[in-house]
Design a protein that fits this description.
Shape: globular
Distance between the termini: 46 Å
Structural class: alpha+beta
Helix content: 10-25%
Order of helices and strands: HHEEEHEEEHEEEHEHE
Largest sheet: 8 strands, mixed
Number of helices: 6
Radius of gyration: 17 Å
Length: 252
């Protein structure tokens, strides 16, 4: 069975959002070996494996990541082999837009490659989840500046056909409590809706505050899922991802 067929045969695009992104709108990012697909290591850590991976599949995942490299999964059903070091494992939720009052925001600015140093600095301070030097290439990112300083941002990550994941929602501690995360969520949702697509997002199930915020804005729980990151045996970590893989941990 080909990698494309094994991932496109899922019941719903959001059942395996990494696989359907990498065989759909994000196919130009896909790195492939056998039945394993992943994003480039400087874009985002997510990878996709078949529903029932065999030993050869794990060997292919290890070859793509390299010794000590990290493989990060969601919606997985099988644990990695016993000699892989699990560095992160958490229960999560997937929520979809069923009534978000999406709207543009006049204070937001569009962020691009030139803004990446500032974006990485904001992420380092707020830890919303993995954001890497090329993550900005995955979709639209919007930010809010105060006195020229980037203090809040949100954008898009996974892109299954017809859907787009809101991710990287974060605000600097100095401006929390001002509703900037909500405004950015609504503005990014507007960008997605303008393309005729539907916003969705992931969060850690334990992040009750964020989940309640999303539900109050018109997102509805679609399914529960799990996030896992594990290191390939055989070396020091090449791309460790010990932070929370869920990407929309709204703060502020």
């Amino acid at each position: 069975m080909s990698a494309r067929r094994s991932f496109s045969a899922v019941t719903h695009p959001l059942d395996d959002p990494v696989g359907t992104s990498l065989t759909g709108p994000h196919a130009h990012f896909a790195e492939r070996r056998g039945r394993i697909l992943r994003y480039p290591a400087d874009v985002t850590p997510w990878a996709a494996v078949p529903d029932r991976p065999q030993a050869a599949d794990w060997a292919d995942a290890a070859a793509l990541a390299g010794p000590g490299g990290s493989v990060t999964l969601t919606a997985f059903r099988e644990p990695p082999p016993a000699d892989w070091e699990v560095t992160f494992h958490a229960e999560g939720v997937q929520l979809v837009d069923t009534g978000v009052a999406a709207a543009p925001d006049p204070e937001t600015v569009r962020l691009g490659p030139a803004d990446v140093p500032e974006m990485l600095d904001l992420v380092a301070r707020t830890r919303p989840g993995p954001f890497l030097p090329r993550t900005v290439e995955l979709g639209t990112y919007l930010g809010i500046r105060r006195e020229g300083v980037l203090v809040a941002m949100a954008g898009e990550r996974l892109h299954p056909p017809g859907w787009s994941e809101i991710s990287g929602v974060c605000t600097d501690e100095s401006v929390r409590g001002q509703g900037l995360a909500t405004r950015l969520l609504l503005a990014v949702s507007h960008e997605i809706r303008e393309r005729g697509e539907t916003p969705f997002l992931h969060a850690a199930a334990s992040n009750v505050h964020a989940v309640r915020l999303y539900e109050s804005l018109g997102f509805t729980l679609r399914r529960r899922t799990s996030f896992l990151a594990a290191l390939v045996p055989g070396g020091a970590p090449a791309h460790p991802e010990r932070g929370e893989p869920a990407g929309a941990a709204a703060r502020g």
